[in-house]
Amino acid sequence: MRIRIFLRILLTLYILSFIFIAGIVIFCAWNLIDKAHPIYWIENLYGDTVVKIVASAIAAVIIVLSLKFIFTGSRDKKVKTKTLKESESGSIRVSVLALQDMVNRYVMESSDVRNHRSRIITNEKGIDIDLKLAVIPGANIPELTSALQSGLKDNIETYSGIFVNNVDILVDDTSLTGK
Could you tell me the residue range of the domain that residue 36 belongs to? Predict the structure, then answer.
């Protein structure tokens, strides 16, 4: 997860650098920047060693980021699945997104649940379900969570055929409101 955030920050800086360069080109093209300034920058680039080193470092970073973004964007994302059955004629799998949709539909049937987030974790024996709930005021939390745990387990096992190891529930309104 942290790598994705780091890559987004790099991509943002990368895009901002090109916006800056494009702005300078537009300003030069329309004579909004005096011709003496770009000439001065180019003379510094050819003459000053420190400017050469800094410009080369910036160019190298841009080239590396460009290659990184080219190859990162071209990969096909593999759909996470859980295998139900393997036989001579092939295998039967259920996507984690389909399981998550089953969980979401089941949870939203409860009138005591105001909002929720779910996560499916696959392992060798089956799946684990992590559920965060925001409940309505006055809801009986022990009764609700107990019913959701047993009901979710039965529902997923019945309709998908996948064993549910754990259903972990956290009731926390603040985690679902973006605070």
Answer: 2-73
